[in-house]
Amino acid sequence: MTKDSSAGERKRLLLSMLIPFMLVFFMWLMRGASLLFGNEFYFLGIYPGRVSSLTGIITSPFVHSGIRHLVNNSLPLFILGTALFYFYSQVSFRVLLWITLLTGLAVWITGRPAWHIGASGIVYGLAAFLFVSGIIRRHIPLMGLSLLVVFLYGSMVWGIFPGFGMDISWESHMLGAGAGVILAIWYRHEGPQKPVPFYEREEENETGEDSGEVAAVDPVTGAGSAAVTDSVTEAGFKTITRAGPAPESRSK
């Protein structure tokens, strides 16, 4: 790896960290304000069915019930968010936004009558997106990322079940994971893709699919076909070369 490419990768990694870092920073800032003013800011969360709490779809990820709750969400959000922006930069903003909106709205519609707060729904959505995307794209580096997600956060799967804890918003976990799966399928044709094998590219070249050739029937005799190729001479004039059976000669 050259110095330029190494510097480019470092810059790309740092840029990928920017948005996740800002999200985590505001989460901690909100917790600091909570301690400073003695207010837990639960009213910024989501209360299902209550119209006034629709704004919580955006604000609830920044509100946490305590330091432990905040710490448990901070590191996974930063790591998974960085992976999203690094490996899926073309769709990363849309994926993060849609995970937030879909999860929050689904909780508002189907959740228990209680305040739902925290960024865990987004964390589950990111984990599900990264895992499923790597599998369905069948691209080795992305599949490796999928396995890494399972290794680091596979135990999170228990958090989608109701019996995991009554004080845990398992609805956010389950619905966030569902949103991640849906988005992985929806954006499967965007972003990084499995490279086309070299032998397939050779076959395409041999069949002339990319050569600019078209089949044509001789307009005079109507016999055979000719491959017509446009080319430009050094003088800048366009010429047409025909390859194929010559027209039949007619004798009187």
Description:
It is globular and about 55 Å long. Mean pLDDT is 81; it is low at 211-252. Helix content is 54%, strand content 6%. The protein contains 8 helices and 3 strands. A 3-stranded antiparallel β-sheet has the order 1-2-3, with no helix packed on it. The protein folds into 2 domains: 3-186, Rhomboid-like (Rhomboid-like fold, Up-down Bundle), CATH 1.20.1540; 212-243, no CATH class. The chain has helices at residues 3-37, 56-59, 67-87, 92-110, 120-137, 140-153, 170-186, 198-206; strands spanning 214-216, 226-232, 238-243. The protein is mainly alpha-helical.
Quick tags:
Rhomboid-like fold, 252 residues, 2 domains, disordered C terminus, 54% helix, mainly alpha
User: Within the CATH hierarchy, at the fold level, what is the topology of the largest domain?
Assistant: Rhomboid-like fold
Q: What composes the largest sheet?
A: 3 strands, antiparallel
What letter string, H or E per element, gives the SSE order? HHHHHHHHEEE
Number of domains: 2
Calculate the terminal CA-CA distance, rounded to whole Å.
Answer: 73 Å
- The top-level CATH class of the largest domain is Mainly Alpha
What is the total tally of β strands?
Answer: 3
* Poorly predicted tracts of residues: 211-252
Report the CATH superfamily of the largest domain: Rhomboid-like
Strand content: 5-15%
CATH architecture of the largest domain: Up-down Bundle
Cα Rg: 28 Å
